[in-house]
Each structure stands twice: as structure tokens, then as C-alpha cells.
Specification:
Shape of chain A: globular
Largest sheet of chain A: 3 strands, antiparallel
Largest interface: A-B, 31 and 31 residues
Strand content of chain A: 15-25%
Oligomer: homodimer
Distance between the termini of chain A: 48 Å
Chain lengths: 112, 112
Amino acid sequence: MTERDPTLMSGIPELVVLRLLAQREMYGYEIARTLRVLSADALSLGEGVLYPALHALEARGLLCSRPRQVAGRTRIYYQLTSRGRRRLERVAANWRGMSEGVERILGAGAHE
Amino acid sequence: MTERDPTLMSGIPELVVLRLLAQREMYGYEIARTLRVLSADALSLGEGVLYPALHALEARGLLCSRPRQVAGRTRIYYQLTSRGRRRLERVAANWRGMSEGVERILGAGAHE
DNA sequence: TTCTCATACCTTGTTGCGCGAGGTATAGTC
DNA sequence: GACTATACCTCGCGCAACAAGGTATGAGAA
């Protein structure tokens, strides 16, 4: 199955989740917290976004998970698969292209 | 009626259209062309995106339009209203926040 | 004890947006 | 007479983001 592109927009949850997990294994709640901290609240994925996203990503074979008991609580740790790593490169490149495009539009007209 | 935020994502068509029209009056086909050129094809809104977007923006009072006959063809020129101008500031600020957030995530981990 | 807060997971339903695929019409060129 | 560029439009699909809800544990305060 060929991986579809997010055509143009969005896919930010996918992008940032893949990016964080590219560094180290993390569990859902931790991802949410890290995202909030790193982005200074500019990016805060609600749990209604995050968890479904994680499940979808795993179903697509981009992540794999394993549960772990820590202090009586269940955490589900996710890590990137090799497919996930390749996917990250794609969506990151995509983001950059789009982002630069927008910046050019926003910056245009300086020569008025 | 209070203007809703695009919560987190997207709204790029709205953003770039408002931004272009902030500079000068333009018609739909011209907007599409300009977008393609300025962004070096990174941003190309299909007509199935652009025209509905223009209509929606006008319906929300952010644009106003006037038809003009040029060389036997009808062009519909759009320009920003003052509400549109205010809206542009909002969505542009929004974009920057979001964009910087993403960049921080993408750039994170350099200290590994 | 009970209350509340932080941790940690989850699902359901709605909505709106981006998009592809189509459709109309004129002007000019080959 | 066909083809391209200009110039507008609509319908309908799919999906992703979101809000709002739900479960359960552990720790500390009241």
C-alpha cells in the first residue's frame, strides 16, 4: 500500500509525534506533556487527538507499542519502526516545503 | 458572532488568501497563479479549494467582491474588508506560534 | 474518611475543511 | 475545427482534529 501524503495541510500531530519518538521511546501522557513544554503551549494536542493518533500510527505500522507497569500504573510505551522513520523524513520534508511556501507569501510585498 | 480560531491546524488557504489580498485587489484565477509562482509550487490551491474558500470568506464578511469585464471575460475581484484585515493579523499570529512550536520540536534533541 | 489532584489510559460523535472530479463559457491559435 | 489558456463554478467524499465524556490508580490534604 502506498502511503498517502497529507496532501497539503496539517498532519502536525503525526509530524511531532513521530519526531519525538525518533529520539526515544515514550508513552502517551509523556508525549503530551513534552509537547506542551517544548512548544511553550503553542502546540497542545488534547488527548482526544493524541491517543487516536497513536493508535492510527501503530495500525499503519509506523509505531509499535509495549505496555509497562510503573508504580501500579500502566504505561504504554511507543517507539518508531523503520517505516516510521522513513515516514518522518517524508512528512518533515513536506512540512518544510509548505512552511517555506507560507513564509514566502507572508514575507512578500516588502518591495512595495 | 465571535470568530472561531482554527484551533490548531491548517487554515493555510485562508491565511495566504487574506495575505495576498492585503496587498492589492485580485481575482480568483490570479490568486491561484500568484500563489503557485510565489511559493514555487509548494502551495498550489486547486480551484476546488480556492473558490469555495473565497465564497466562505466573503460570506463571513472578511472579503468583498465586485465583478469586472475584461476582454470579454468576467473576473471577480476581491478585496479585504477591515474585519478581514483584523482576521489576517489573528491567523498570521496563530500561524507563527504554531510554526515556531513545530520548529522547536523538529530542532529539539540537538543536545543528544 | 473523603476529597481532590495528578497520572494514565480510552471512546464516541460531530464538524469542517481540503480535495478530486466534474461542468460552463469565451478568446485566441494552429 | 481542435486545442489551449483564461475564468468562473459545484457536488460529494473522506478524514483528521476536536470536545466531551468515561475508567482507574496513587498521593496528599482536610
